[in-house]
Write a structure and sequence with these properties.
Layout lengths: L1 H21 L2 E6 L4 E5 L6 E6 L4 E6 L5 E8 L3 E9 L4 E7 L6 E7 L2 E6 L4 E6 L4 E7 L5 E6 L5 E6 L4 E6 L9 E5 L4 E6 L5 E6 L4 E6 L4 E7 L4 E6 L5 E6 L4 E6 L5 E6 L4 E6 L5 E6 L4 E6 L4 E6 L5 E7 L3
Antiparallel strand pairs: 1-2, 1-28, 2-3, 4-5, 5-6, 6-7, 8-9, 9-10, 10-11, 12-13, 13-14, 14-15, 16-17, 17-18, 18-19, 20-21, 21-22, 22-23, 24-25, 25-26, 26-27
């Protein structure tokens, strides 16, 4: 009997260890600490931290989840580097310098490459991990190019230009003919931006006038605009595309919007200055960084209520998933 119990315990432990190794880990950037925290998304406990450059604002994971790319935006001194983090070892492998590309911010992975904005240079650039180089740069012609998204077909990138009051559409290589670009005039202070899972709608939050514009990506024209809250700063579609979450930095709440009706169905208190939003891989939860409250809250997307809190570090903001997703 004792041998059977020991064998059962061993099998259970091995199963738990395998599950842990295959599970995704939440990555949280702490702007004031200049660190990245690795968090168990089930227990909400910090597993470890690693250093980054000054003022890490946004992060993106490689397609396999083994590397985390951090945009070092900087503080009073503008940043100009990407921290490349080994997710398994939880350590910074290198700090890749970006000569001529100032204040990197929005950052996403697409097709194995890492695309990012250079706010101070009014440009979008691409880091190629295989070649370990920046192999594509395109100017937006607009001031304060901050956040970006890539269309699902990876043919276009859209950026939100805060000071320009515009969204820039840039065609991505390979080109068929001359590369295309278009400036789309939106509301005041566009910053938060996301694209629907089917790629048909681009939602842009205007922090200065409290509205969201919806752009038809087929025509690249505004189809609808509505009020959403005080200083909306981030926008994120749920995995199934049925709802859109908007963090209102001055309203201290998370607006849950029905993607079809464009109506706010609920406002969830978040704590001071909610900014970054990240969806759980299974689509059941959202993680929201309340930057001024030094915490990340966990939102149940079925109950639409807060179910947990993470204390990752000082002024948390950008987040990503490391490991299996």
């Amino acid at each position: 009997m004792r041998r059977i119990l020991m064998l059962a315990a061993l099998v259970s432990a091995l199963g738990a260890n395998a599950a842990a190794q295959g599970a995704a880990t939440l990555v949280v950037l702490n702007k004031s600490d200049n660190t990245v925290s690795f968090v168990d998304p089930q227990t909400l406990k910090v597993l470890g931290t690693a250093p980054t450059g000054n003022g890490p604002h946004e992060a993106a994971a490689s397609a396999d989840g083994k590397r985390i790319y951090v945009a070092n935006y900087g503080d009073q001194k503008p940043g100009s580097s990407l921290s490349i983090i080994d997710a398994g070892e939880r350590k910074e492998l290198t700090r890749f310098e970006l000569p001529g590309l100032v204040r990197p911010h929005g950052i996403v992975e697409a097709g194995g490459n890492i695309y990012f904005t250079a706010e101070g240079s009014a440009a979008v650039a691409r880091f190629n991990p295989t070649r370990n180089t920046v192999d594509w740069v395109m100017g937006t012609g607009e001031p304060v190019t901050h956040m970006l998204v890539i269309t699902p077909d990876q043919r276009k990138v859209y950026t939100a230009n805060i000071a320009g009051g515009t969204v820039t559409m840039l065609q991505l290589p390979p080109y068929q003919g001359p590369p295309r670009a278009k400036q789309i005039k939106v509301g005041q202070g566009p910053e938060g931006i996301d694209i629907s899972p089917d790629g048909k709608e681009l939602w842009v939050a205007h922090r200065n006038d409290g509205t969201v514009s919806i752009i038809d990506t087929g025509s690249d024209q505004i189809a609808h605009t509505f009020e959403v809250g005080k200083f909306p700063i981030r926008v994120k579609f749920t995995r199934d595309g049925s709802r859109v979450l908007v963090s209102n930095a001055e309203g201290n709440d998370l607006a849950v919007v029905d993607a079809k009706t464009r109506q706010v169905v609920k406002r969830i208190p978040t704590g001071e200055v909610p900014v970054g939003i990240l969806m759980d891989p299974n689509g059941k939860r959202a993680f929201v960084a309340a930057t001024a409250a030094d915490k990340v809250i966990v939102v149940d997307l079925e109950k639409l209520e807060v179910t947990g809190t993470i204390q990752a570090g000082k002024t948390p903001d950008g987040m990503a998933w490391a490991g299996a997703k």
